[in-house]
Amino acid sequence: MPPRTKLAPEPKPAGPFASAEKRNPIVCLLLAVVTLALYNPVNRHPFVNYDDDRYVTENAHVRQGLNADTIAWSLTSTEQANWHPLTWMSHALDVSLFRLNPAGHHLTSVLLHVVNVCLLFLLLMWATKRLGPSLFVAALFALHPINVESVAWVAERKNVLCTFFFFLGLWAYGWYAHKPSWKRYLTVFGSYAAGLASKPMVITFPFLLLLLDYWPLSRVQGNAENRTSWSRLVLEKLPLFALSIASAIITMHAQQSGGAVRSNTEFSFGVRIANAICAYAMYLWKLIWPSHLAPLYPHPGGSLPAWQVLLAAVILAIITAVVWKFRSRRYLLVGWFFFLGTLVPVIGLIQVGEAAMADRYAYIPLIGIFVMIAFGSSDVARQKSRGVLPAIPAAVALIALSLATYRQIGYWQSNKELWSHTLAVTSNNFVAEDNLGGALILEGKEEEAHAHFAAAARINPKDPMSHSNLGTYYETHNQMREAVKEYEAAVGMTSDAGLLAQTYANLGAAYRGLGDDERALASYKQALQYNTNQFNAWLGLGLLAQKQGRLPEAITNLSRSVELQPTARGYLALGRALQQSGRTLEALTAYEQATRIAPSLAEAQQAADSIRQQLIHPQAIY
């Protein structure tokens, strides 16, 4: 092992920073204020049209708010190809507190990020007793633009929530390592279990604890009284490893049943290895130069150039060699393997979804690199006995990162802005084409949207979403046969239960438009087999029953539809069925609900006015 260079002592804080009791609350307050100020614009942003609907706005369970039924569903649900009950409960609690006002949902995510920043600082301060590097790591974590996605995207609540429990678990482990006892171990176990119940990415937690045993806890290098053998350290973590295995089994089942896991035919193992190597290098590059950030980077498949894979592999090998050479600086070894290890579950060896990598996946892993940078630069300065100088480049770096983060937050201010930016910084991104088209539909720009749906289908002819969207376009233009063709193509391309339910409901509407009630009925029932809460399927069943004169059945189905998703169209149909059944006052209430949701809906307004006139002048009925 190379000899250690003698370092100058770290300058001792003065004034109000002289004691931890006075210093740490002030530093945490400073970190919190700066982070809240930087992320404040997020509170004015809407929900985005990528997963926010499935997690919150169109999720019938979450929309109920936090209650016994929601909790029971959360504990057993594998919706969105994951088991994360605490994440579902978190979203449901937000609905209870803020309804569907996106400001409240965003605020919760921002506050969790702020708490995570403070926990990280306090954890490093407690473990290392070094103010400067600990503060710099926390500031990098707070202000780096690669973390914007985890904070500004409501559907990524799972990321900031799981990190909160991850830090609590590290805190609990430090407490346990100081004085081992079964009660303290239960705290570690419980925090880890809560992290897994928020997002399974922290599955490598037991391995990370072994790294922390090496540094900064020094459980294998301490004095004779505190020193512990590696075998004993591994043995004490067996219950945590068992929890990791259980989580892995549950997660694989959830992802396979949700159709999220890609086959070896789609992505061979060689392709996955090549992409993983490049992804590791790209995360490091985005750490250094955080531009061209996007919610989704399309997987290149087998098109990665060999030179690019080789270059990435060489970079990783060089860093590993340097870290090993300077292994006497234990934080380098721990930080590097922390980065490599925490990315393993999401690096693509088991390919889930369409992404080659994702900014949100770096939320925890880059902490390892931040530690290497902060403690390494501090030690270089101490070695030269000029501990003040790193403060200037550190401050410049943090200001630059803050400006980049502020700009990145701005891209999330609207769906159109987000996906236009994504298309500008990525290539062949059919997911962005789909979502930009969806954003344009909401603005009434159907022809512009159609061009993006068609582009998505050209980029990836096997993309079910683009075909489903094209079907919707044709349906709204009364081209029902073309719509049926696109919907049927879409259902043959996916095993995603949510998309299948939505597409079958739309297919039923297209068949109903063609007058083929039998196929429409079969499609609606198929939609409900995939998702019993598909409100458009209940709406279609209600309209079919109403057409065939089965008014009680129609009212039941239409009531179910608006209960799941209050829509103007649903309330208008319900009002008509109620009015035909002679339930005039209830029909008026339904029409009024429709006009509240869509004040410009003339049919509902006219129907409501007609009933009011009848109530004022009863003789008009005759």
Count of domain modules:
2
Mean pLDDT: 93
> What strand order characterises the main sheet?
1-2
Number of E strands: 2
**What would you report as the Rg, rounded to the nearest angstrom?**
28 Å
What proportion of the residues is helical, as a percent range? Answer: 55-70%
Which parts are unreliable, with pLDDT below 50 for 5 consecutive residues or more?
none
Distance between the termini: 102 Å
The global form is: elongated
Describe the largest sheet.
2 strands, antiparallel
Structural class: mainly alpha
* Beta-strand percentage range: under 5%
Q: With helices defined by DSSP (H or I, 4 residues minimum), what is the helix count? A: 30
Describe the structure.
Helices cover 69% and strands 1% of the residues. It is mainly α and 622 residues long. It has 2 domains: 15-413, no CATH class; 544-622, Serine Threonine Protein Phosphatase 5, Tetratricopeptide repeat (Alpha Horseshoe). It has a two-stranded antiparallel ribbon with strand order 1-2. Helix 9 packs antiparallel against helix 10. The longest helix is centred in the N-terminal third of the chain and has 27 residues, at 102-128. The mean pLDDT is 93.
